[in-house]
Design brief:
six-stranded mixed β-sheet, five-stranded mixed β-sheet, mainly beta, 11 strands, about 260 residues, 3 helices
C-alpha cells in the first residue's frame, strides 16, 4: 500500500492507494458493503448514500470524482495546492479535492449558490497500470484487492460542516457511506500525468486505464449563501500512529 499520498496510485498487483479527502473533521471511514445505502444517519445536510443526485448513483459520482482528480498534471493539481480548488469545476455538483502526502491544509473556495459538494472522507483506488506491462485483473479481482486494503488499513474518517460533525463515519468498516464503484476508466493529463509521477513512470501522458474505487463518500446538499467551513480528516494505518493523516479545511464562500 502506498501510504504517503492522496491522489496518487501505486501500481502493482498487491498495492493500492488510500486517499483522504478534504473537507471536515474526525473520525470515520469505510463501511461494510452490506451496510452501504442504509441511510443518511440523521445528517440533515447529507444526501442518503442510496440517493441518485442528478440521476447518478453515489458510486457513479465517485467514478466522476476520481476521473476529475486524476485528470490533472502532477504539477498543477488541486490536491497538491498547485492549482485552485475550483479548477475544472462546473455544473450542479462540485468536488472537494483530497490532500497529497501527510499534510494539514486550509483552502479558500468560492462557489455559486445551488451547488452540491461531493467528496470522500477517505478513498482508495486500484488500477491495472503496472510497469513494464499492465495487469489484466478483472473488476471482481480489483474490487477484492481494494476492499481488502480498505478493511486492513482505513482507520479514521471524519467530517464537520460549520462545526457540526457528520454522523455515521465513526467506524471505518461499518459506515453506511462506504461504497464501491464498478469498473471505470480514467484518462490522465497529456503532460506530467499523476500516475507516472507517483509510481508507474512508464504510464504514458494522455493514457487511459481501467480501475475501481472504494471509500466513504459524502454528497452535501447546497449550502446557503454566505461563509461556511468544511473540514475532512482521513487516516490509514494502525492507531495511534497511522501511516498518514490527511486533514483539509475548506473555507467556502457561497455567492448569490
Amino acid at each position: 500500500m502506498k501510504s504517503n499520498i492522496t491522489h496518487h496510485t501505486r501500481t502493482s498487483r498487491t498495492s493500492g492507494v488510500l486517499s483522504a479527502l478534504s473537507g471536515l473533521a474526525l473520525p470515520a471511514m469505510a463501511a461494510s458493503p452490506a451496510l452501504a445505502g442504509v441511510g443518511n444517519v440523521g445528517n440533515a445536510n447529507i444526501l442518503p448514500p442510496q440517493s441518485r443526485p442528478n440521476d447518478l448513483s453515489c458510486a457513479q459520482w465517485a467514478e466522476r470524482y476520481w476521473q476529475w482528480s486524476l485528470s490533472f498534471p502532477a504539477t498543477a493539481n488541486p490536491a497538491a495546492d498547485t492549482a485552485p480548488p475550483e479548477s475544472a469545476q462546473s455544473g450542479p455538483v462540485w468536488f472537494l479535492a483530497s490532500v497529497t502526502g501527510n499534510r494539514t491544509v486550509t483552502r479558500q473556495m468560492t462557489i455559486p449558490s445551488g451547488t452540491s459538494f461531493f467528496f470522500p472522507a477517505l478513498s482508495l483506488f486500484w488500477i491495472n497500470a503496472v510497469c513494464p506491462e499492465n495487469t489484466t485483473l478483472t473488476e471482481a479481482e480489483l474490487l477484492e484487492l481494494a476492499n481488502g486494503q480498505w478493511d486492513a488499513f482505513a482507520s479514521i474518517t471524519a467530517c464537520t460542516i460549520d462545526g457540526v460533525p457528520v454522523k455515521g463515519l465513526e467506524d471505518p468498516q461499518e459506515t453506511p457511506y462506504r461504497l464501491q464503484t464498478d469498473l471505470f476508466y480514467v484518462t490522465v493529463a497529456d503532460h506530467d500525468n499523476i500516475i507516472a509521477a507517483t509510481g508507474t513512470p512508464c504510464f504514458p501522458d494522455g493514457g487511459t486505464i481501467d480501475m475501481v474505487a472504494v471509500g466513504a463518500f459524502l454528497m452535501v446538499k447546497p449550502l446557503p449563501v454566505g461563509q461556511h467551513t468544511v473540514r475532512i480528516v482521513g487516516a490509514a494505518g494502525p492507531l495511534p500512529t497511522p501511516f498518514f493523516v490527511k486533514d483539509a479545511t475548506y473555507e467556502i464562500t457561497v455567492t448569490p
